[in-house]
Amino acid sequence: MPPPLTILHLDMDAFFAQVEQMRDPSLKGKPVCVGGIPGEDRSVVASASYEARKFGIRAAMPLRQAQKACPHAVFLRGHYKLYQEVSKRVVKILEDYSDRVQPSSIDESYVDITGVLKYWGGAEAIGRGIKKRVVDELRLTCSIGIAPTRTLAKICTDLNKPDGLTIIGPDDLERVIFPLPVEKIPGVGAKMKKSLNTIGIFTIGQLAGAPQEQMFKRFGVYGPQLQEIVRGQTNREVHTEDERPDEKSIGNSRTFGQDTADRELLRTYLLAIVQMVGRRVREADMAGRTVTLTIRYGDFHTLTARRSLPRLTSDENEIFRLAWKLFEERAMPGVPLRLLGVSLSGLVPKKTAQTDLFEKENKVFKAMDAIKDKFGEGVIGRSSTLGVKIKKGPGK
Prior knowledge:
single chain, 396 residues, alpha+beta, Alpha-Beta Plaits, Dna Ligase, domain 1, 5-stranded mixed beta sheet
């Protein structure tokens, strides 16, 4: 029987802002906001230093609002290539401790340290060693959580920020995790919190102990799934780069002007996104099998779900049916979304596939594509997506 997993989650503290303070030491100790210049654009704050957060400034806050909250804050457009370079250096440090590293964003990574605990002297020694190297080599701080699952590790990371280290084992859930408010669960935003509070669930422990039937009735399959997650019963493995599926894909996404939880509106946008994906796949004379749905919440927490179709296709009806099924299974009811994205991967040229494989492909799509080529994207489409504009995006 394999040993229980030990997962480390690393989150760089106020990453963009901290890198700017490292790049320009005169900014240290000052409230720094990265994202744009108020008055010159309509951007939002991408990263706020902890000095800025004392004034209530947070990520995704409109720049004008942030300037009102702290008029003397330093606003910067940022140096995103530098952030990427630093991010790669952080990952290299992690890879020195374990060969099972999975970056989840530019400033976060998961590391499976199960098999190297004895070699490095235990979880605490690994956590402290990583933090020391990040400080010594990059002059930055990070926060680390170590727990039996990815979600629990991420919750632990947020308990002692900045520059924190929190470690729990399976026996620590009731003492450390269960007393926390439900909004500490990644992805549980204001609306989901309100929905849970309405039925008397205010803490993670109350969520874990709620009747499964009640959770299913109120939230569908997501309710019991959320209970399993906070009990430590559900865990996604850490996948290294080599273990991930072929990423050659064609995809599109839409960032909304305003976060929305409107189910019908989201369904309309998803359909419009899928239509563009199908069009681009057919333009490339390709077909694929694996559909990936990307959901980004208002707090920038991002979730992806992937599933394969029974056959290669470029039929947007098939792609949409599976994408919407993934949405219904994985999206949190009532929680506003910032972005939706869909991609089709495992692509192969149609000419290399079986000759009769696409005989049933709906010829209407090709006719619509030809009309759009001649007269523009908005000239024809489904009535449900009229007025929804999705730009052609690059393949992922």
